[in-house]
């Protein structure tokens, strides 16, 4: 079976761990665990008639530590860059995070996730800003919710599809 590594990126609290949990276990814990290190979850699934063993690498706690970044990224076939739809600063920092990853890893498939799409009343990123990001950078954006599960499976499936094509 093909094995592929996916890294989760994005500012603290955007929902990286919750998205992995939702995808791997189809549950939502609603808990906020801050521990140090990296958690690696595994999920076997099928994309386009291809069995894939995904390894999902997720930083626990602060994810801006230079010293762990290159070993975290090594061998990654793709990544999800998560933004919190309700916190504008996580949209702003996504641009520098993306630049950093590309410098370190080169061009590999990735998707931008606007997470917490269930919190409609608290959105702090405008449609214009999202459209501009898509137009200017050509990034693919999905609106997800780890809480409701909206488009979570689709995000991992689409990324894996692109990774298999890229390989
Ligand atoms: P991480 O630091 O990026 O791993 O973020 P977590 O997965 O730990 O989530 C941070 C907080 O946001 C937690 O309290 C989660 O319950 C909450 N959260 C994560 N995803 C969602 C979502 O889609 N909707 C809502 N309403 N809350 C979410
Ligand atoms: Mg986390």
Architecture overview:
The protein has helices spanning 16-25, 66-73, 88-105, 127-137, 152-166, and strands at residues 2-9, 37-47, 50-60, 78-84, 110-115, 141-144. It has 167 residues and is of the alpha/beta class. It binds guanosine-5'-diphosphate and magnesium ion. Magnesium ion (MG) binds at residues 16-17, 58, 60.
Mean pLDDT: 89
Q: Strand arrangement, largest sheet?
A: 2-3-1-4-5-6
Gyration radius, rounded: 15 Å
Point out poorly predicted stretches. Answer: none
Identify every distinct bound molecule in the structure, by name, code or SMILES. Answer: guanosine-5'-diphosphate, magnesium ion
Beta-strand content bin: 25-35%
Short description:
The chain is α/β, with parallel strands linked by helices and 167 residues long. Helices cover 37% and strands 28% of the residues. It has five helices and six strands.
């Amino acid at each position: 079976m093909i094995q592929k590594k996916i890294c989760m990126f994005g500012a603290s609290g955007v929902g990286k761990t919750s998205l992995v949990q939702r995808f791997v276990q189809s549950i939502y814990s609603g808990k906020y665990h801050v521990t140090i290190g990296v958690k690696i979850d595994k999920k076997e699934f099928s994309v386009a008639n291809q069995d894939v063993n995904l390894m999902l690498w997720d930083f626990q706690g602060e994810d801006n530590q230079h010293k762990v970044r290159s070993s975290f990224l090594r061998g990654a076939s793709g990544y999800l860059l998560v933004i919190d739809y309700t916190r504008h600063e996580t949209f702003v920092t996504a641009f520098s995070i993306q630049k950093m990853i590309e410098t370190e890893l080169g061009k590999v498939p990735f998707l931008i996730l606007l997470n917490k799409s269930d919190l409609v009343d608290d959105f702090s990123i405008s449609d214009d800003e999202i459209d501009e990001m898509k137009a200017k950078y050509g990034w693919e954006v999905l609106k997800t919710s780890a809480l409701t599960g909206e488009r979570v499976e689709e995000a991992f499936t689409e990324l894996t599809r692109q990774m298999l094509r890229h390989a």
